[in-house]
Automatic annotation (TrEMBL):
GO cellular component: plasma membrane
Domain of life: Bacteria
Domain MacB-like periplasmic core: 21-231
Subcellular location: Cell membrane
Domain ABC3 transporter permease C-terminal: 272-385
UniProt entry keywords in alphabetical sequence: Cell membrane, Membrane, Transmembrane, Transmembrane helix
UniProt KW RNA-binding keyword: no
Claim: NAD is one of the keywords in the record: no
Organism: Papillibacter cinnamivorans DSM 12816
Lineage: Bacteria, Bacillati, Bacillota, Clostridia, Eubacteriales
Entries under Pfam families matching the protein: FtsX, MacB_PCD
TM region positions: 21-42, 263-290, 311-338, 350-375
UniProt similarity note: Belongs to the ABC-4 integral membrane protein family.
UniProt membrane topology term: Multi-pass membrane protein
Protein's name according to its UniProt entry: Putative ABC transport system permease protein
Length: 392
């Protein structure tokens, strides 16, 4: 009997017992679908996280400096970062002001106002949609100008052009000189619900000149590490531990840790779902043992007329692998549909399983069929013709 004949007999046997064959496949279907759905959802979470960090800007260094009874270090830090032109592309204060923002009769109460330098957009990965950005002269001359995010534009101006209009922040009039393009992330629009004003107006808004939060933009991941080392060294000479403290850290670290955690989560969930495949494999072994018992007389006849053990093993292995492969295909279809639905419902994104994972799940299901079908196949091939022919 050649492989083609063995395959045809396997399909015929499966179709002759449709319900039993489907129940046998069920463990493989559930296992493959579970692996695809869980790993795809974790992959979607990782993709959203990467989009989030990309929207914030890569290679950002956050600097916090708190001092009391000591002079403000904003100018010194600014000049020092500019001297690191081989490592740093920009530096800006990043202190905030919370207050009411008004334009004519419209009011926004949840917008966050940042006090930044002319390099704020570079450091925080904002792109202009219209108008201009803050300039060095705006900061130097204490000009009451601002650049607004797309969410603030929508809330205050709808479809009108806000450039040149005057808004009121904390009771003070500011001229809108530019609008930032929307970040467009799946984490919400809070990064667009913002306004940037020159940091030199901190006294006007927060009644203080001291800045405590800064963002430094490094040129690359390698430059980030070296820049952090240099900033720590610089601040250690400027901030007395008795009168203040500082902290320097990079969001690259959080991104790397987040990627490691999602990778571990993917492996754990994939392993848990893989248990269903093993359970499905046990079901295949069980049904193949039943099949061997049902077809003992047939096996005896085949061996009596000269069939080799290899032919008997091949036939039963093909049958078990066909059952497992069919279950794998159905599981892939079910898993893909569930991934599309859950991705849309839970993450509001169109999520597809990766091709590599889909192929891997299918091949693993076939391996499960072959592996768990091996024992029944060997048992069938070991039957003695005389004893097999006596079977009822």
């Amino acid at each position: 009997m050649n492989t083609n004949q063995a395959f045809k007999m396997s399909v015929k046997s499966i179709l002759a017992n449709k319900v039993r064959s489907f129940l046998t496949m069920l463990g493989i279907i559930i296992g493959v679908a579970a692996v695809i759905v869980l790993v795809s959802l974790v992959s979607g979470m990782q993709r959203q996280m990467q989009e989030y960090y990309a929207s914030l800007g890569t290679n950002k260094i956050n600097v916090s400096v708190y001092t009391w009874g000591s002079p403000d270090i904003t100018s010194d830090l600014y000049d020092y970062c500019l001297s690191l032109d081989n490592l740093v592309t920009g530096v800006t204060p990043n202190s905030t002001y919370w207050g009411t923002v008004k334009y004519l009769t419209k009011t926004v109460t949840d917008a966050q106002v940042y006090l930044g330098s002319d390099q704020y957009s570079v450091c925080s990965n904002y792109q202009l949609a219209s108008g201009r950005d803050l300039s060095y002269m705006d900061v130097l001359k204490y000009k009451k100008v601002c650049v607004i995010g797309s969410k603030v534009k929508e809330s205050l101006f709808n479809y009108a052009d806000p450039v040149g209009k005057t808004i009121v922040i904390g009771g003070n009039s500011f001229k809108v000189v530019g609008v930032y393009a929307s970040k467009g992330t799946s984490w919400g629009d809070w990064m667009d619900n913002m306004i940037v004003v020159p940091y030199t107006l901190n006294r006007l808004l927060n009644k203080t000149t001291q800045m405590t939060e800064f963002v430094v933009k490094a040129k690359s991941a390698d430059a980030t590490t070296e820049a952090i080392t240099r900033l720590n060294g610089f601040l250690s000479t400027r901030v007395d531990s008795n009168t203040g403290y500082y902290n320097v850290y990079s969001e690259n670290t959080w991104q790397e840790q987040g990627n490691q955690q999602t990778m571990m989560l993917s492996l754990v969930l994939g392993g848990i779902a893989g248990i269903s495949l093993l359970v499905g494999g046990i079901g295949i072994m069980n049904i193949m043992l039943v099949t061997v018992t049902e077809r003992t007389r047939e096996i005896g006849i085949r061996k009596a007329i000269g069939a080799e053990r290899r032919a008997i093993i091949t036939q039963f292995l093909i049958e078990s692998s066909v059952i497992s492969a069919m279950g794998g295909v159905i599981g892939i279809v079910v898993g893909t549909l569930l991934t599309l639905v859950l991705g849309k419902v839970l993450m509001q994104i169109v999520l597809f399983p990766s091709l590599a994972m889909t192929i891997g799940a299918f091949l693993f299901s076939v391996v499960i069929g072959v592996g768990f079908g091996l024992y029944p196949a060997v048992k069938a091939s070991a039957l003695q013709p005389v004893e097999a022919l006596r079977a009822e």
